[in-house]
Amino acid sequence: MLIQLTDIKKVFNQGRPNEFWAIQGVSLEFEPNRVSCLKGASGSGKTTLLSMIGCLSRPTSGRIQLGERVISSLPERFLTDVRRHTFGFIFQRFNLISGLSVLENIMLPAYPLGLPYKRLVATALHLLEQFNLLAKADNPVEWLSGGEAQRVAICRALINDPQILIADEPTANLDSKLSYEFMGLIDELRQSGKTILITSHDPEVFDSAVVDRVVEMHDGVVLT
């Protein structure tokens, strides 16, 4: 589905001496089934912008539209429902839960949807097989290598079959070889019909042939 941003602004500590405008009037469109990368230095606003697109936070003003639906003004409980059913998230530090197995970590985002447990396990195992991790299903996540942890994070993001994947600095803790492999996985996901939004200041990401569009940000505004 088409993602449309119209004059999005985000301010923190509004009206206080430390008021900070993180996003300053951004208008963008992201086409479906494409890989788009928000490029920029730390503090450029790219992560803040993706958090609003992914229903993790709200804009101070402006409109965010998914397809025909305006989501920026939805009540919180509806926003949560949109987030759970529409988006999958891959975080910079993977955010895997220590003490739980690989399989348990992957299933976590699906529990609020109330799916039958056997079906949930089957879906998680299928994802592990798809990403060549089936043998690791019962292992604690602490035992994983960096590349394995990244693939588990992707499986977790896919457990609810989201239409849109959001990846925030996904290669920040990976070497160049693993970053290249990650972009190969992103290409496969794009070919399967996913829309993918990535933030990165890694050339392995924004210069990749997998990326359809690069949007450069600086101090909360779009440069390109």
Summarize the structure.
By secondary structure, this protein is α/β, with parallel strands linked by helices.
Element layout with pairings:
Layout: E1 3-12, E2 20-30, E3 35-39, H1 46-53, E4 61-66, E5 69-70, H2 76-86, E6 87-90, H3 102-107, H4 117-130, H5 146-158, E7 164-168, H6 176-191, E8 195-200, H7 203-206, E9 213-218, E10 221-222
Parallel strand pairs: 3-8, 3-9, 6-7, 7-8
Antiparallel strand pairs: 1-2, 1-4, 4-5, 9-10
Helix content: 25-40%
| Outline | globular
In CATH, the architecture is: 3-Layer(aba) Sandwich
Distance between the termini: 22 Å
Number of helices: 7
Classify the beta-strand content into a percent band. Answer: 25-35%
Query: Main beta sheet, described?
Result: 6 strands, mixed
- CATH uppermost class: Alpha Beta
Oligomer: single chain
Give the C-alpha Rg: 18 Å
Instruction: State the low-pLDDT regions, or none.
Output: none
CATH superfamily: P-loop containing nucleotide triphosphate hydrolases
Mean pLDDT: 90
Q: Can you count the beta strands?
A: 10
Name its key features.
6-stranded mixed beta sheet; 224 residues; Rossmann fold; 25% strand; globular; alpha/beta; 4-stranded antiparallel beta sheet
Question: How would you explain this protein's 3D organization?
Answer:
It is built from seven helices and ten strands. It has a single domain (3-222), classed as P-loop containing nucleotide triphosphate hydrolases (Rossmann fold, 3-Layer(aba) Sandwich). The mean pLDDT is 90. It is globular. Strand 7, helix 6 (176-191) and strand 8 (195-200) form a beta-alpha-beta unit. The protein has 224 residues and is α/β, with parallel strands linked by helices. The strands form two sheets. A six-stranded mixed beta sheet has the order 6-7-8-3-9-10, sandwiched between helices. A four-stranded antiparallel beta sheet has the order 2-1-4-5, covered by helices on one side.
